Every structure is written in structure tokens, then in C-alpha cells.
């Protein structure tokens, strides 16, 4: 279920289905995908989410926060994976990063203070570092995003 059109998502669909195929999941064989495309019309997401919940699918993949929120409003039991959410806590997709709760999981690119802290925590665990320095211009709201552009 996605806000974008099928045509604009086609390159990503090829990668997604190819990766699943590499893991032994073949669309039309042992994998059935119920695609829903909103063609840029966010208001369609609620209806699509309701349809998918009534079909009792095993998983809802919601690439954007709006799609994940629409799905979350209609089911508390079907797992929902958001691909690129904003801030999942601020958006209402998770209670906290430490204990998200509910049936929603996924990735985010928005560096809120909680997410930045969690990234530093994971970096420390992964490297064994005892001291980490962070250079940041406080005049920039999202320094990681602005540096990446």
C-alpha cells in the first residue's frame, strides 16, 4: 500500500520482488502480493488499509508514514512494516524506540533526538568505543539530512 503510483514505484518493485525471489519467495507461487497504489491521493489510503485488513493479509508493507498510519488505524494484529517513516514516535507509529509496542516496525531517516541517541548507543555497542564525539551545528534542525543533500 503506497501513496505513489505503480509506475513511479516500478524500479523499486523489481528490486523488492527480486530480493524476495533470492530468498525463495516467488510472486504468484508461494507469495501473493495485494498491491494498492494511491497515485498521490493520500485520502485513498484509509480505504486500502481497510480492504487489506478484511483480506486478513499476513503483513502490510507501508512505504510512507501516511500509509503506515492508515494501516495502524484499522488493525492491531496484522504486522505493519514502514519502509521510510519520518519520526515513528512523533508520527504515532511507535510508543518509543526502546519499547515501540504494537504491531508496527520499520526504518526511519528523520534524526530526532531520541533516534540520534539510539544511533549513538548502537555505534558504541558495535565498536566498543567508550568516548564518541559529535560535531553538529545547532542552527540546523536536521544536520544529517542537510549534509547529505
Q: What does this entry look like structurally?
A:
This protein is mainly alpha-helical and 149 residues long. It has two domains: 6-110, Rossmann fold; 111-149, no CATH class. The protein is built from five helices and three strands; from the N terminus they run H-H-E-H-E-E-H-H. The protein has helices at residues 6-22, 45-54, 65-74, 113-127, 143-148; strands spanning 60-62, 80-85, 104-108. A three-stranded parallel sheet has the order 1-2-3, with helices on one face. Helix 3 links the parallel strand 1 (60-62) and strand 2. Helix 2 packs across helix 3. It starts with 5 loop residues before the first helix and ends with a helix. The model is unreliable at 143-149 (pLDDT under 50).
State the gist of this model.
This protein is mainly alpha-helical. The protein has 5 helices and 3 strands, in the order ααβαββαα.
Low-pLDDT stretches? 143-149
Q: Over the alpha carbons, how many angstroms does the gyration radius reach?
A: 18 Å
What is the oligomer described by this structure?
Answer: single chain
Whole-number mean pLDDT: 85
Q: First CA to last CA: what distance?
A: 28 Å
What's the CATH class of the largest domain, please?
Answer: Alpha Beta
CATH architectural designation of the largest domain: 3-Layer(aba) Sandwich
Shape verdict: globular
Number of helices: 5
Total count of domains: 2
Q: Looking at this structure, what is the CATH superfamily of the largest domain?
A: Response regulator
Classify the secondary structure makeup into a structural class.
mainly alpha
Secondary-structure element string: HHEHEEHH
Number of strands: 3
Q: What is the percentage of strand-forming residues?
A: 5-15%
Amino acid at each position: 500500500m503506497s501513496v505513489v503510483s505503480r509506475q513511479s514505484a516500478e524500479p523499486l518493485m523489481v528490486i523488492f520482488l527480486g530480493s524476495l525471489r533470492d530468498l525463495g519467495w516467488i510472486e504468484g507461487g508461494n507469495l501473493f502480493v495485494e498491491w494498492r497504489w494511491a497515485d498521490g491521493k493520500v485520502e485513498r489510503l484509509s480505504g486500502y488499509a481497510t480492504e487489506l485488513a478484511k483480506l486478513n493479509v499476513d503483513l502490510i508493507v507501508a512505504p510512507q508514514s501516511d500509509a503506515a498510519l492508515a494501516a495502524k488505524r484499522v488493525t492491531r494484529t496484522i504486522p505493519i512494516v514502514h519502509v521510510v517513516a519520518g519520526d515513528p514516535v512523533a508520527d504515532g507509529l511507535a510508543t518509543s524506540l526502546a519499547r515501540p509496542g504494537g504491531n508496527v516496525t520499520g526504518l526511519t531517516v528523520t534524526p530526532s533526538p531520541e533516534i540520534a541517541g539510539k544511533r549513538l548507543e548502537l555505534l558504541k555497542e558495535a565498536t566498543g568505543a567508550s568516548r564518541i564525539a559529535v560535531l553538529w551545528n545547532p542552527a540546523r534542525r536536521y544536520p544529517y539530512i542537510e549534509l547529505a543533500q
